[in-house]
Amino acid sequence: MAITKSEAAKLSNDMLQRGVIETVVKESAVLNYLPFLQVTGTSVTYNREATMAAANFYIPGDTWTEGTPTFTQATTQLTILGGDADVDNFLQATYADANDIEAEVIGNRAKSIAHGFSDSFFNGDIGVNAKSFDGLHKLVPVGQTLLAGANGAALTLAMMDELIDKVKPGKPEALFMSKRTRRKLKDLRRSSGTVLESGINQFGQQVEFYDGIPIVIDDFISDARTLGSGSGLSTIYAVKFGQGSGVMGLEHNGITVERVGELETKDATRTRLKWYCGLALFNTLGAAKLEGITA
What we know:
Blueprint: E1 2-3, H1 5-11, H2 15-27, E2 36-38, E3 43-51, E4 70-77, E5 79-88, H3 89-94, H4 98-123, H5 136-139, E6 145-147, H6 157-166, E7 174-177, H7 179-191, E8 197-200, E9 206-210, E10 213-217, E11 225-227, E12 230-239, E13 247-262, E14 268-281, E15 287-293
Parallel strand pairs: 2-13, 6-15, 7-10
Antiparallel strand pairs: 1-2, 3-4, 5-14, 7-12, 8-9, 9-10, 11-12, 12-15, 13-14
Helix pairs in contact: 1-2, 2-4
């Protein structure tokens, strides 16, 4: 069953765990949109459609021929994302409100988990860090990748439209980009005599739209990538979500909060936050990227 992290927070009866999930979602724009598939085991194996069986025209009395689609199999491993939050016992005992110091320490650790997931969502590469998971920059195949130029080039509205058309069927559900790229996109729209639409998304947040698609800003989308001899380049990702449509998060039992207890080597109490998680691209046509965008 697919569920977003904000929905998962509503189902939690543990106030501390709910607070952690809400903090993680607040700190990660990605998690407002990304649904998660509950995985039993350490990995998930799935089939991607490679070729479609052809349909033919027939007349009465014809011999019908079988058409069989072909598939490619992919496997994604779960990894462990987390950290320990240590609360000093002296501060806990002497602080005006003991709950405040604990909430601050655990909230800080939850924020780092959100940042770690967002970073890997875009930039993860198990060839660089085998303990992480592959992110969009690596998962999107060559056939779904557009280049602004061999060494990078300025963004144009025609590039935006071509990127959107790469995602099938229908439109992407989100356009992820950096703040620098959004500024350029807004400038292009103003120069053409229009502006980016704005409105309320499904989460009640005020956002901007391009061609009816929400623009999602994430600081983990780098403006410092290289392409050919070009540098200082950025990327836009167009994404659909869901098991049959495109990108989906993977997890086992969600984000958990464990009381480890008193530490032996220092006067502190430890709480452990951990998340068995991963990322899968179920449909290669459900995501596309535009690389090489200059400032």
